[in-house]
């Protein structure tokens, strides 16, 4: 592309956008906020572009959270986490081995004592899945001391890595767990919604049904790198945009997370769902049949439809399946039993 006839100072301030004619509704005004130039995407990419060993998971989580809730105070959050690390190191029994360090971390979080003002951190049985998006924010968990299957494992990994414990995040369907490697090299699953007690792979497969293909393809129960963990954090931002009906932004963030975590089936599914919502917005809610769609718009219709099917198909090819209502109800019944109520 050649731009001529503009003075150099003005040319330096000029931005050029390339529009795929099949990707947007014809003649719709182009909104730079919906493009890959999305500011939030740039901030997340800046984190992901760092060398693996330089990524600070606490900084990353708080940065993503602030993109969702501007009131999040990143510096205050980091100071609080550092204060927690200092307290854990001062606890009786904090030693030099992986196991003794782990036990001190578990006591700090789950057992009442002076270290946590006799208020241990607990599983939020009223919102175990973090259905309310604000409950997935780390700052909310630190304040309320009630967490879910997103905030509890992420805080555990953040603190653990700062303490020199060999812990990483891993995933199961709609769930995050922790992988711990002890001084002998043995690796264990830790379920942070239940005291960070050990849990075998078979237990997760019984509680959260997953296919053989998904496990074999490394979709579930595999230790994540720091970059993959940041990608998991950023899926909450995509979820936020989806809830706000900003589907193009949800797609942009999903594209970014998939670039660094290609096996993130939840991002694939959310991306496919976002394309469906755009399809409904522009066509399904306006026309009774595809035959009624104007010829000039049919390319866009097919583009959205194809992407909707394509991204679900990609997730399914890796072994993902959509949980049935019966499976979801079964899981929530178990949570209700912990709470002492019936569904």
TrEMBL record:
Q: In terms of domain of life, where is this protein from?
A: Bacteria
Q: What Pfam families does the record tag this protein with?
A: Transglut_core2 (PF13369)
**InterPro entries in the cross-refs:** SirB1_N (IPR032698), TPR-like_helical_dom_sf (IPR011990)
Positions of the Protein SirB1 N-terminal domain: 79-195
SUPFAM superfamilies for the chain: TPR-like (SSF48452)
Q: Which family does it belong to?
A: Belongs to the UPF0162 family.
Protein name per UniProt: Protein SirB1 N-terminal domain-containing protein
Q: Which organism is it from?
A: Sulfuricaulis limicola
Tell me the classification of the organism that encodes this protein. Answer: Bacteria, Pseudomonadati, Pseudomonadota, Gammaproteobacteria, Acidiferrobacterales
